[in-house]
Design brief:
With 504 residues, the chain is mostly beta strands. It is built from 7 helices and 36 strands. The strands form 8 sheets. Strands 3, 4, 6, 7, 8 and 9 form a 6-stranded antiparallel β-sheet that branches. Strands 21, 22, 24, 25, 26 and 27 form a 6-stranded antiparallel β-sheet that branches. A 5-stranded mixed β-sheet has the order 11-18-17-13-14, with no helix packed on it. Helix 1 packs antiparallel against helix 4 and helix 2 runs parallel beside helix 5.
Length: 504
Amino acid sequence: MTGKTAPPATDPSPAAPKKEPAPAPKEEPAPAPASGEPPAPEHPPAAEQPTAPADKPAPVPTAEAPEVPTPAPEEGPPAAPAEPQTAAPEPEPEKPKEEPPSCPLSLAVEEVSENSVTLTWKAPEQMGRSGLDGYVVEICKDGSTEWTAVNKEPFLSTRYTIQDLSSGEKIHVRVKAVSASGAGVPATLEQPVLIREILQLPRIRMPRHLRQTYVRRVGDAVNMMIPFQGKPQPKVIWTKGDQPLDTSRVNIRNTDKDTIFYIREAQRSDSGKYELAVQINGAEDKATLDIRVIEPPSPPQNLKLVDVWGFNVALEWTPPVDNGNSEIKGYLVQKSDKKSGKWFTALERCTRTSCTISDLIIGNTYSFRVFAENACGLSEKAAVASGVAHIKKTKTAYQPEKIPQRDMMEPPKFTQPLTDRTTTRGYSTHLFCSVRGFPQPKIIWMKNQMEIREDPKYIAMIEQGVCSLEIRKPSPFDGGIYTCKAVNPLGEASVDCKLDVKAS
């Protein structure tokens, strides 16, 4: 037994030199090289001590032993703690616990009103094995740390409106995803939300067809809807000439998004410019609506026969007194022969207040009438010429003694001038004018002051005082100023016009 006890004493003795490196940083071991020899003789005493029949020497090494284990963990004892580390994996059976869902994504404010805020977000990336039970929305007033759940039970929608909030306060908002394993990390708005009405500036969205003059006939209904935007609901004001509207004529109905302008039966007096104003707390947007109510014009005035020659009649008149609140587009000229009594259209959309009617039948007596036309249509009545035109038959025998030649002598005079024309390349066109004079004048056609001679491109004709020039398949080169010149011994006269040939 003592031999067994001796080894433990020897164990600490080798441990003793190991203890010397630990105190090495201290200044006391400096004399160690001189005392290096004494430890060797210490071993024999250690052997002598076990021979002593006393138990005291045993406790001496044990006293040193507690000091030895302090450095021992650095080298020898690491094997001993390795055993408890291998025992650590035993709690692994507790891992089956499910993790809560992850944080909701893209939390944002969709709309803020005076007492509510609407939130939207996206579902979290990880729902957990048991699936998602829903979401919980919490709020915290600015300056406080207490979070309060808004909804009592989880819900699955990714949109929620928090109601019954106080206007003007700031709140922090966060949303948690909840499952059977618990609540996940909340998604929190970075900035607090100020509960107040978000103002939207007023703006009138005038329909395109109302941006120009709105035309209606007398008796028609005027019904227009004009949308606008603004928040809170704007104030709508209609005026005409800076004066409130006549409610006996105009009905206005307003909603939070549009205004309706209605007139049951429009009259000429309803024409004018109406102003629409949309206002919100000093902010304003304006638009002008131009309405024109039209009706057929009155008939032309002072229609008369200016001249009758050959198969032709020249007419003149003056514009109507009332144009029906619309520009006169032209005149409709009709003729009626005495035999049939029926009216036939001779000219349509005549833009001037004079015209020449040709190709009348010899021996007939004609009456003429003229209608005025505007955007609403023809005038209800026509202007009728007071006189009639009798197209006489030509005589077979000429009696110079009865009609002295000098009484018929007359210099050339154009009764119908040339008119400017526009034609398309490759399409033949005609130029017409009327001339009288005796002896019969010689007709000379010129282009840009250059006489047109024998050219197959041009065909010039004169019949009963009506001069015509046909330009066959013109090209842009054929455009220019064309002149018709009439010459006889008593004088000469000329008229000109401009011909424009378009490429296509």
